[in-house]
Amino acid sequence: MMFSLEIHNAIWLFLVIFMLHDFEEIISVESWSKKTSNLVESNDSRLKKLIWSFWNINSHSFAKRDVVIFLVASTIVFIKVQFIESEWVAILFMIFLCFVLLHNLVHIIQTLILKTYTPGLYTAIGLVTPYTIYLFYRLV
Predict the structure, then answer these.
(1) pLDDT digits (tens, 9 = 90+) for 86-118
(2) Nearest-angstrom CA–CA distance, 76 and 68
(3) I need a labelling partner for 29 at 20 to 30 A (CA). Which of 1, 22, 98, 104 fits?
(4) CA separation for the pair 38, 93 (Å, rounded)
């Protein structure tokens, strides 16, 4: 017997999946920036310094950023669930999912440029990207 998830629940579950990703970032960002500061201090690459400067933040400040992201994501998910048959809401939600996939791609690119783990990489690859693709599949 195959497990089936109602589409409303699948959409709501996206918030949980995305928050697990945010938790990985919040938990790891502060120690990561301390451990990797030597990568950019001894390097002349402006791009590496720019990437590192984005992540060079304490967990509390990073969590405040993530609250805003969570509120935006929650609002979009709420609207999608309330107006599940609406065409403009479907477009809005698909655009949102595209931004999420782009966000995950940025994690991978940052990791390749810095040649080290960046906060959020594991859940971006292992949870958020597969679930976002699953939602695309279910909604199309």
Answers:
(1) 999 999 999 999 999 999 999 999 999 888 999
(2) 12
(3) 98
(4) 40
Contact 21, 120 (CB under 8 A): yes
- In 3-state terms the chain splits into helix, strand, coil percentages (rounded to 5) of 85, 0, 15
Distance CA(45)–CA(70), nearest Å, equals: 32
Tens digit of each residue's pLDDT (9 = 90 or more) over 5-50: 899 999 999 999 999 999 999 999 999 988 888 877 777 788 888 8
Sequence letter at residue 49: K
Find all residues with CB under 8 Å of 40, minimum gap 6, and list them. 48, 49, 52
116: which DSSP letter? S
The structure tokens 């709501």 sit at: 12
What's the full length of the chain, in residues?
140
- For the four alpha carbons of 81, 71, 10 and 102, in that order, the dihedral sign comes to positive
This prediction's pTM: 0.89
